[in-house]
Design a protein that fits this description.
The chain is an alpha/beta fold and about 350 residues long. About 45% of the residues lie in helices and about 15% in strands. It has a domain of about 210 residues: 3-Layer(aba) Sandwich (Rossmann fold). It starts with a strand and ends with a helix. It binds nicotinamide-adenine-dinucleotide (NAD) and thymidine-5'-diphosphate.
């Protein structure tokens, strides 16, 4: 059985590729990734020589290339993670999100349909999406699988559009799809444009910690390996045509999370308690900033028996320790393009 994983050199994709290679040595895993700024083969150094692994550099937007790839490998399944994934970048440059997340997903759906249309038995197209498609919650309530879509950033709108196309290919052409919508992930190998690794990196280097707006925006954080486990389970046992919400049951206001990270880092760096909190700066808010995301993951728990395993303080400590232990990794990804991005994003 050969499975195509797209975006496998990114944050979540690399954890999923590693898990699949180790757990299913009988599968051949083909990792297709364009290696944008967010794709990094260093994330997979420990598994790159395994006999059941192949890396292919290319774009999900390239129709001829996808056609040739499907012919060459005769995939039984696709797990699609490749995307532009950062809200702030989508505000600065929405077009890149339309090309990759919408057009790229439709091209991949089209390639799968073309190659599977005579025999869909045993095939599966798994689309990995986000809870951000549901919009923004107030102080209470949770997103369920039936919450109406209400995307409010170019990123979430592009993911919502891609979700709609995945379901349309199921209803119109009978493509055997399954989807999941997950909350914010954290853990090793996350690119330091996202909140947690950005703060860890800045704390370490005594740089200001930019907290948007009043800092009381809320996210539900999930340990990335718990997400990879959920994807594995849904890929193998999820019902065709169904959607599953995945969440950490782990809500934090941003300012509380940043405080917790400061305290963990002070401890790990041997600094006096309270030192890093002094770096916190409240900065201009993100335009259209969604107030709160929170997931009701009871369908996944009841149907497939999944629940998160890593809890907040432990996960934050493990993440902080990983970044401290992997200074080379961090140095490589925070040079070049990152410096220009950082200048543009945090100029004021
Ligand atoms: P990421 O930005 O770390 O990785 C994305 C990967 O996609 C990179 O390796 C990049 O090189 C690759 N890529 C981009 N454009 C491509 C193209 N045209 N062709 C082939 N590859 C391309 O993202 P992530 O955080 O690992 O997220 C993975 C998926 O999970 C995304 O679809 C995202 O929407 C979804 N998701 C992420 C989170 C989160 O908290 N990070 C939460 C829920 C869902
Ligand atoms: P982020 O990690 O970008 O994920 P998302 O926007 O997809 O949820 O941001 C998480 C939260 O942290 C969000 O409310 C925005 C906030 N944030 C800051 O306050 N400062 C920052 O520098 C960043 C990157 C995010």
């Amino acid at each position: 059985m050969t499975i195509l994983i797209t975006g496998g050199a990114g944050f979540i994709g690399s954890h999923l590729v590693r898990r699949m290679l180790h757990r299913y040595p009988q599968y051949h895993i083909v990792n297709l990734d364009l290696l944008t700024y967010a794709g990094n083969l260093e994330n997979l150094r420990d598994v790159e020589n395994l006999p059941n692994y192949t890396f292919v550099k290319g774009s999900i937007e390239d129709e001829a290339f996808l056609d040739q790839l499907f012919q060459q490998y005769d995939f039984q399944g696709v797990i699609h993670l490749a995307a532009e994934s950062h809200v702030d970048r989508s505000i600065a440059d929405p077009m890149a999100f339309i090309y990759t997340n919408v057009l790229g997903t439709v091209r991949l759906l089209h390639a799968a349909r073309q190659h599977w249309k005579d025999n869909m038995d045993g095939k599966r197209f798994y689309h990995v999406s986000t809870d951000e498609v549901y919009g923004s919650l107030g102080e209470t309530g949770f997103f369920t699988e039936t919450t109406p879509y209400d995307p409010r950033s170019p990123y979430s709108a592009s993911k919502a559009a891609s979700d709609h196309f995945v379901r349309a290919f199921h209803h119109t052409y009978g493509l055997p799809v399954v989807l999941s919508n997950c909350s914010n992930n954290y853990g090793p190998c996350q690119f330091p444009e996202k909140l947690i690794p950005l703060m860890i990196n800045n704390i370490q280097h005594n740089k200001p910690l930019p907290v948007y707006g009043d800092g009381r925006y809320t996210r539900d954080w999930l340990w990335v390996e718990d997400h990879a486990e959920a994807i594995d389970l849904i890929y193998h046992q999820g019902r065709i045509g169904e959607t599953y919400n995945i969440g950490g049951n782990n809500e934090w206001k941003n300012i509380d999370l940043v405080h917790a990270l400061c305290d963990v880092m002070d401890e790990l760096l041997g600094r006096a308690a309270g030192t890093s909190r002094q770096l916190i700066h409240f900065v201009t808010d993100r335009p259209g900033h969604d107030r709160r995301y929170a997931i009701d993951a009871s369908k996944l728990k009841n149907d497939l028996g999944w629940a998160p395993t890593v809890y907040a303080e432990d996960g934050l400590r493990r993440t902080a320790q990983w970044y401290l232990d992997n200074a080379e990794w961090l140095r490589h990804v925070t040079s070049g393009e990152y410096l220009q991005y950082y200048e543009r994003q945090y100029a004021s």
